[in-house]
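Summarise this fold before class:
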Amino acid sequence: MMTPRSRTHRSRYTVPITRERRRSSMRNLRIALIAIVVGLPFALGGCAAETPAPAAEEAAVDAAGPRDPFVGTYELIGRNVKDENGEYVPVEDFNSLGYITYSDRGYMAVNVMPLDREPFADGSNPTPEEVQVALQGYTGYYGPFSVHEDEDGGYLIHHRTGQINPGGEVDAKRYYDLVDDKLILTPASDTGMKHDANRQVVWQRLPDVELSEEAQRFLGHRELLYTTRYTVQDGEPVEDGERNESRAGSVILYTPTGHMMVHLMAREGRTPYAGDTPTPEESMAAYRTYGGYFGRFTVHEDADPIYVVHHQEGRSRPTTGVTDAERLYQLDGDVLRLGGRPSENEDGDLAGGHLYWELMPHREE
């Protein structure tokens, strides 16, 4: 099991990219894609008059998809701010951990937290003041994403369908620069543009890892359908028949890089903060209706019963080190059932709960 390395370092990447350079890059990309599509008949058949085979046409269209350059999982490696000369410089004493992921089906998710968070004095019963401090610098949200361009360059829209901040921005505009294996996101300024923005977030693409065939079945973004409770009878879980949909629409995801995230959020009863900074009571309300964690995952398909381990590098509740959470699972088509190991309830019976997650459909670009 890998443990997270220290992230106390300066970002090494700033992006003094001019508007003309951005436009030039976009023109070059279009030219390259057109060349691929136009040249494909010659490569396949040697004759320009031939119509490409359907499979080749589909491959060319897929290659030109605007989402394709972003698909993957990235690790947060730094932040930049503008200095008095208008140049981006690394933030001093950067010390955060986080990942952002974009799927080929059109969904994204992000989790970021400071590495110096203090655990609660009583882990399961924090005070409102402790929660207020814990949420400072913690970012967690998820939803579809789309790719656009304007006079300031290319940008993404993160369409947040869920987030830890109950009244946060819904459509978050992020100008992008792709530099080698780095993704630099520049949040649009109050004017909605890039040229007068003043901060950047720097991400580094992570490589895919070798996964077993069973682990590959987990890959993708899934939406929570419902939860159930069960008791163990004759060695088998017997559900009570009641489906709880109070957190339906929450998201869990697994990526080819071996990472996972979960965003578990209540559908109702979340009230936006009255001001820019939440009060202790508002912080507690947001915390009680949202839970998130992220890290690597390991599938134990040879165990009896089979289970997956979520190696939690970070979570909405402050902890130290990596926490391993075992989840018994069952995969039935597009539906993944997860649940902790059963434990004895107040009646002396073994009991537990299940969460049912369904693979999310492909979104049109």
About this structure: The chain has two domains: 19-205, 213-359. Residues 231 and 349 are 7 Å apart (CA to CA). The first helix runs from residue 19 to 45.
